[in-house]
Amino acid sequence: MKWSFLGGASEVTGSKHLLDVGMARILFDCGLYQGPRQMAEKLNRNLGFPAATVDAAVVSHAHIDHCGALPLLVKEGYQGPIHCTSATADLLPVMLRDAANIQEADAAYLNQKTNRKGLPQVVPLYTTADAEATFRLIRPHPYDTSIELPGGVKLLHLEAGHILGAAIAKIKIPRHGRDPLKIGYAVDLGRRHLPLLRDPAELTGVDVLILESTYGDRLHDAARNAREDLRQVVTRILGRGGKVMIPTFALERAQEIIYHLASLFASGDLPRVPVYLDSPMANAVSQIFEKNQDILDHEYYELRERTGDSPVTPRWLRFAETVADSKAITSSKEPSIVLAAAGMCEHGRILHHLKHGIDNPANGVILVGYQAVNTLGRRLQNGEKKVKIFGDDFQVAAEITTLNAFSAHADRLELFRCVYDARPKKLILVHGEQEPRERLAKLVRDRLRIPVELPANGDTTEFDGV
After folding, report:
1. Per-residue pLDDT averaged across 333-344, rounded?
2. What's the rounded Cα separation, in Å, for the pair 320 and 326?
3. Is the pTM above the cut of 0.85?
4. Four-point Cα dihedral 3, 9, 13, 15, nearest 10
């Protein structure tokens, strides 16, 4: 019985874990590394194991750093089931089709250069056809339903409170002559009091806890402050006639921002201005939220009843479906609010809005999510005054604001609470940069006297002694 950390151990991306139990092999998450192009190309080309040797796959949620390599897995020979929650099953086709389109478009762009230089053709990591083949393997399950896996392993998906459909897992592994080994798997743990999602479930009675540590070194502003924090910044920018640009992750963060804007408009706490959602994928995700109303939290229903309108697809929201729609928004000078992908400003339509508005001191950029190292979002967050967009230099004159209340990841206190409730015999910290992991590990060792492991990618741990 062994657990291998193949991605997302000492970094906040590319989650990939492999459980070997006897003759059975189960893959937990199969994400893409997201970062600088050359590094991503090198890491994503290699799964780290022969795909055909895997008997079953389990996906915790539909973020690309947890599911984005599934089409590559299938392309390389995997034909087993892909287990996930029902809402994640709805989201995977949207997310993976988009990821495949990006792979194909990037390869086509690079091949324009390689053709001129006589270099070998660039082959996309996978294609749309590979993504479509993946969808046939998806097996949806409701929360709190026992799933039978190879090797006698049983799995229970519980609410993670991170994004729609996200799950933390309780894994039971049979042991000869002993009680089953119980593993808690919470590689992306959400927060309490988010407006659309139910609070994370408690993971109790586990022997080993595998836990994320993204924010293991810091505290967030209270999630309840998100509405007021957003109101203050938007009011300030609109008050000077500027445009509000919000880089948003198409899955979850866009819908959360729309919910808060709907609440602020309904109460009269924000003036009515045009609001644009410049992301076809975010629009598609919003429709999936509507389909899965049964797993949303009570705030969704309360605001819907109060306004007579959907909190995530309201009638006043203007969708920009085409490139022409997007260009019309960038050329407009009227005060407005623009939500556009992608959340770390590395690609997507937000780059066009930044290109046309970052040098205007009346405008403002509101960062509402984690900004990874080496991304444009992190450079803006760090206060750099000159940045490159599409290869050109731009002076940053727009106001840059980070709203920490919007994070969908548990912070240091919430992570510690998870460990406190679980009281495992061993804690394994993954999905975090090294300093946050080390600081959270020290807190747990000092306060709870629980052994903590900090694996690197490629490491393997055995559970026989637990």
Report:
1. 93
2. 6
3. yes
4. 0
